[in-house]
Design goal:
Pfam families: Acetyltransf_3 (PF13302). With 187 residues, the chain is an alpha+beta fold. The chain has 4 helices and 8 strands; from the N terminus they run ββααβββαβαββ. Strand 3 and strand 4 form a beta hairpin.
Length: 187
């Protein structure tokens, strides 16, 4: 899919229709809004402006590196940016896999937007035909993100002790989707 293309997901049940737009230079304000304390509670808290600028640069540049993709989540039909999602390479248990993560602004949470976007991003990662798995690692104390994993068709693998950001201990769940099989998300 070209950088200027978007991915629209058909409506399922009461879930809103979303579109994933490739992350752009103009999305820095969205990243700032996602960096709020209530959005980063399970991720060690808000990042500094410097770290946020570094993150934004990584998001913009990732496509050119061929190691993943980042998107803004756009709510249709209003074309309102409501969050971010993406996938990127990482080594997990001696295997290169994709990791995914998302954030939906508080006023749009609880509507199925993140699950809809996760299904879309899994389809995009699957189409790359690069890695077998995509993983999500929400905190065990984040019931909303763990529910999104279940709803989007991830399979629970195990709990583990991790660090995020570096130096911040966090207990996480490892959720995984096999990209070589078709996704069966909950309705």
């Amino acid at each position: 899919m070209a950088e200027s293309e978007v991915r629209e997901m058909p409506e399922r049940g009461n879930a809103p229709l979303v579109r994933l737009d490739p992350w752009a230079e103009t999305d820095f304000d969205l990243l700032r809004r996602i960096n709020a304390p209530e959005m980063t509670e399970h991720l060690g808290g808000p990042e500094t402006e410097e770290k946020l600028l570094e993150r934004h640069r990584r998001y913009v540049d990732i496509v050119g590196k061929g190691t993943g993709r980042m998107f803004s989540i756009v709510l249709l039909p209003d074309l309102q940016q409501v969050g971010s999602i993406g996938y990127w390479e990482r080594v997990w248990h001696d295997e290169t896999v994709y990791e995914t993560g998302w954030g939906v602004l508080p006023e749009f949470q609880g509507r199925g937007i993140a699950a809809e976007a996760a299904v879309a991003v899994i389809a995009l990662a699957r189409a790359e035909r690069t890695h077998r798995y995509v993983h999500a690692y929400p905190s065990v104390g984040n019931p909303a993100s763990n529910a999104i994993c279940r709803k989007a068709g991830f399979q629970f693998v195990a709990e583990f002790d991790g660090e995020y950001p570096p130096g911040n201990a966090i207990r996480c769940n490892d959720w995984r989707v096999d990209l070589t099989t078709e996704l069966t998300a909950e309705a």
